Automatic annotation (TrEMBL):
Its cofactor is pyridoxal 5'-phosphate. The keyword Transferase applies. Catalyzes the removal of elemental sulfur and selenium atoms from L-cysteine, L-cystine, L-selenocysteine, and L-selenocystine to produce L-alanine. GO terms for biological process: cysteine metabolic process. Pfam families: Aminotran_5 (PF00266). PROSITE patterns: AA_TRANSFER_CLASS_5. One of its GO terms (molecular function) is pyridoxal phosphate binding. It comes from Hydrogenovibrio thermophilus. This is Cysteine desulfurase. It is an enzyme of class 2 (transferase).
Length: 404
């Protein structure tokens, strides 16, 4: 698919919002869904809907093939070694909680250290705090600079012989910073720590190769990758997943049950208790087809150009301060406008058909670092255009004039 045709593939973007053509700039929260994904899900319910792995009849076999086909697509997408390493979960949050509650509970003990960064989403802070309460582990937080960057030296200074796990965000949702995760993995390996990467924001914007990164776990959500909500992925190295106890118990994750003893199913099913989100996984497979039809490198280059343009244009506005000025950023711009509250700005901009987020972005420690209650955040998707940026800038200017 050509970039010029991309917007047409998104029916929701054709509608008016408050009488104005919708400019959607909240893809960091959830990306819009292309018609190919919508049609794939509809076709599944029309033609293939049945439970997976259980039926010997044709319909169930087709549903199973489609569901497992989606798993293989994810495996290829991440360049994982085997389908066994791809666990379908509800999203990034569930993936991180799965690792905390299974690998974490089994391997961590009082005094062990888990390293995170100051720019984590709450989903990569709170699961470790729960373990801290339960097991007495120590949470070590790598500080970021005032540009919103993690310096490798600061990261390395937080690694000790007690570091068991490094769990860091690949790309920050609140700042757009892309962290030097390949170098971070290498440094973590030197002290023998395992590494989990939160890829929620990274996967829609750049190609990710888990084997090249050599991370142990990688988590992402389907809905930020132009797929449906309620589906996401935990990648884990096979040997690690194999040695982990199950997360939830129930159908599909068992091999045999008696009242005395239960044997668990093999990977990846050991971690997929109950009827999975079959249509979600198939929809995610279609979303991967969609981004691959454009090419992740093409997407990354295009969004970088949009980011550069938007940064330049927004900086012309009086009193506007960009929060997060790291040199290596993805398509996210957080900003505040002096003398205004982000919520008031976003409410006024909604009147102009501009959908952007005013919030702490589930990253309150980031807000604390910059001493702001919230920021406005424009986060881009592959469907955004230079015209969208012009409308954003005009709407910010207009709202500022009304409020200041
Ligand atoms: C960096 C990051 N991590 C984790 C999450 C949580 O994702 P989900 O709500 O899909 O589980 C998000 C969502 O905004 C995110 O941006």
């Amino acid at each position: 698919m050509n970039l010029s045709d991309v917007k047409d593939a998104f029916p929701i973007l054709k509608q008016l919002e408050n009488g104005q053509p919708l400019v959607y700039l909240d893809s960091g929260a959830t990306a819009q869904t292309p018609v190919s994904v919508i049609d794939t899900i509809a076709r599944y319910y029309r033609e293939e809907n049945a439970n997976v792995h259980r039926g010997v009849y044709g319909l169930s076999e087709r549903a199973t093939d489609a569901y497992e086909g989606a798993r293989s697509k994810v495996r290829r997408f991440l360049n994982a070694a085997s389908d066994k390493e791809i666990i379908f979960v509800r999203g990034t949050t569930e993936a991180i909680n799965l690792v905390a509650q299974t690998w974490g509970r089994r391997h961590l003990k009082a005094g062990d250290e888990v390293v995170i960064t100051e720019m984590e989403h709450h989903s990569n802070i709170v699961p470790w705090q729960l373990l801290r309460e339960e097991l007495g582990i120590k949470l070590v937080v790598v500080p970021m600079t005032d540009d919103g960057e993690i310096r490798l030296a600061d990261f390395e200074a937080c690694l000790t012989s007690k570091t068991q796990l490094v769990s860091v965000v690949h790309m920050s949702n609140a700042l757009g910073t892309i962290n030097p995760v390949a170098d971070m993995v290498q440094a973590a390996k030197k002290v023998g720590a395992k590494v989990l990467l939160d890829g929620a924001q990274a996967v829609p914007h750049m190609s990710v190769d888990v084997r090249a990164l050599d991370c142990d776990f990688y988590a992402f959500s389907g809905h930020k990758l132009y797929g449906p909500t309620g589906i996401g992925v935990l990648y884990g190295k096979e040997a690690l997943l194999d040695a982990m106890p199950p997360y939830q118990a129930g159908g599909d994750m068992i091999y045999s049950v008696t009242f005395d003893k239960t044997e668990y199913n093999v990977l990846p099913y050991k971690f997929e208790a109950g009827t999975p989100n079959i249509s979600g996984a198939i929809g995610l497979g279609a979303a991967i087809d969609f981004v691959e039809s454009i090419g992740l490198d093409t997407i990354a280059a295009y969004e970088h150009e949009l980011l550069t343009y938007a940064t330049r244009q927004l900086q012309t506005i009086d009193g506007l301060r960009i929060i997060g000025t790291a040199p290596n950023k993805g398509g996210v711009i957080s900003f505040i406008v002096e003398g205004t509250h982000p919520h008031d700005m976003a409410t006024l901009m909604d009147q102009d058909g501009i959908a952007l987020r005013a919030s702490h972005h589930c990253a309150m420690p980031v807000m604390q670092h910059f001493d702001v209650p919230a920021t406005l955040r424009a986060s881009f998707g592959v469907y955004n255009t230079h015209e969208d940026i012009d409308r954003l800038v005009a709407a910010v200017e207009e709202a500022r004039t009304m409020l200041v």
